[in-house]
Write a structure and sequence with these properties.
Number of domains: 1
Protein name: Transport protein
Number of helices: 6
Keywords: Membrane, Transmembrane, Transmembrane helix
Organism: Bartonella rochalimae ATCC BAA-1498
Order of helices and strands: HHHHHH
Strand content: under 5%
Helix content: over 70%
Shape: globular
Number of strands: 0
GO molecular function: transmembrane transporter activity
Pfam families: MFS_1 (PF07690)
Distance between the termini: 49 Å
Length: about 180
């Protein structure tokens, strides 16, 4: 898969990854209201089994057998170190890593903060939807950029937008009561 195709592929995948933390608490809350807390684990187990089934029986390996690499601990470590030494990989991976770190830090800490503010569990679930929509919107904007310009230029724009968002967020935290 070439660089442009990989970029387009990830722009399809990231909205699903970005919205999953918003949907998960909402689905969990609905299951909890309709059934009991064990229903969440039953749902997760069924979801995992369905995923394993689809991966095993529906998805097929596209890489020819002759081009596949052995799956050994030494090979994994060697390939991982090779990837981490690749400056282009670090450049492409940096912004999603920071974005997801900030996103998941918010998801982990916000229930405690929002509960102290008096929000119910259901409204806390709803609060994640707005944050997830920014991921979807960001991917739609990135897709439109990628149609008109190179991957590098699109990533540069993403870095600028990400830094501007971080600065605006820091300012908002500073001026808010």
């Amino acid at each position: 898969m070439d660089k442009e195709a990989a970029g387009k592929f990830y722009l399809v995948i990231f909205p699903f990854v970005g919205t999953s933390p918003a949907l998960a608490p909402l689905i969990g809350q609905l299951l909890l209201q309709s059934f009991n807390w064990q229903s969440i684990f039953i749902f997760l187990s069924l979801f995992i089994l369905l995923s394993i089934f689809l991966c095993h029986f529906v998805l097929t390996e596209t890489l020819p057998l002759t081009k596949r690499q052995s799956f050994t601990p030494v090979g994994i470590i060697k390939n991982s170190l090779e990837v981490l030494r690749n400056k282009q990989f670090i450049f492409y991976a940096l912004i999603p890593c920071f974005a997801y770190a900030a996103y998941f830090a918010y998801i982990v800490e916000s229930p405690f903060f929002l509960t102290n503010l008096g929000l119910s569990t259901l409204y806390i679930c709803y609060s994640y939807i707005g944050v997830s929509l920014t991921y979807v919107l960001g991917n739609l904007v990135a897709r439109s950029f990628l149609k008109r310009e190179s991957m590098e230029r699109t990533i540069q724009r993403g870095y600028v937008i990400f830094v501007m968002g971080g600065i605006l967020f820091a300012i908002q935290m500073y001026v808010s009561p």
